[in-house]
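Escalated from tier 1: iron/sulfur cluster holo job.
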Amino acid sequence: MPDLARTLLPRWAQQDWMARGSCHGRTSVFFPPYAERPQARARREAQARLVCQSCPVLETCRDYAREHREYGFWGGESEDDRALAGYAVPWPIGVRRRPSVAAAS
Ligand code: SF4
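Tier 2 regenerated the structure:
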């Protein structure tokens, strides 16, 4: 992977508040599988939104995801929600799943 791409990609880092999240152990609800269809995405994100509604760290999680331009569902928001709020992801949704990108890293 070129150094520039490595620099621009958001880097996930474990945060203390993550252990208190209601989504702990439910990764498949918060991150899409490869080639997820729009209807499946809508269903998955609706499930994630329900989990986030009662999460004790929702605001911290939302701020973190916005600041780090994360992919996936964080803090009650999808990538589209964050983009509408002014925090768009730096690469098109799904680009990190492409084999050519993964092989280069
Ligand atoms: S707000 Fe949602 S994504 Fe963030 S830690 Fe809580 S349940 Fe997980």
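The pocket of iron/sulfur cluster is lined by residues 21-23, 30, 51-52, 55, 57-58, 61, 74-76 (CB under 6 Å).
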